[in-house]
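User: What would this chain look like folded?
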Amino acid sequence: NNKVELSPAYDFLSTTTAFLSIGKQIEEIEEVALPIKGKKRKLTRKIWIDYFGMDRLQLNSAVIAEELTRFSNSFDRWYELIKRSFLSEDTKEVYTSLVEQRHRLLKL
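Assistant: Here's the prediction, encoded as structure tokens.
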């Protein structure tokens, strides 16, 4: 029936820090495991919201707006969890940078 569903743990772990630790450049690292609109990196807000959210998942604008608000409200908690985590300081910096980039990408 053309419905897209993801498993609960889809892309749950970020592999970015692991790839960086073995010398990969950030430009070489895929942002997602499965392609979205034919891309695995350099995904834009338009791709996430218009293509994936509206076209593929068939979410209406009210649902998308509500989820974006919930997502936006979670950033402070993410930063706090990263800060308190067992990760090394270098890895914490990488994760914080990734969260900041995604925050800017989604214009939240």
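The radius of gyration is 15 Å. If you want, I can go into more detail on any region.
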